[in-house]
Request: fold
Amino acid sequence: MGSSPYWYYVAYEDDKNNALNKLRQREFEAGRYNPVIAFPEFPVTDKTESPGKGHKTIADALEEAETDGTRSILDLEQVSDEDDLCIARILNKDELMEYFKTERPTKEIIEKNRDNFLFDIDRGKGFCITVYANEIPAELFFIGYSFD
Reply:
């Protein structure tokens, strides 16, 4: 089986790791992760299935998901400039220019170009991108690929 993409928008925070942790907790509590939902749907909306958590902890969910991963943001554990497994890597200026032709992409630009960079994400990894509105940080965009 191939890996599955997932993506989310959340309100902007300077502390990107805090934003990631809140998002992970939200999705865990909603139960929008494998194995509770084998293949969660994206994007997440108000109408997205939310059966509730099926595990005591995120670590328990990750353990049961095994090599497939959770096919959700639970697979990403921190935001960093470094490229590694379970990392939501912050794109550098050159990458932002390559993918979006700007260092301050808007939500519209990200949506229009998502497929251009989606396939550059390795399994078990992700990106964290600051989304701008009127030249001001407005949201964070998290996107990644499951392990399998």
About this structure: The longest helix spans residues 16-30. The chain has one domain: 5-145. The longest strand covers residues 136-145.
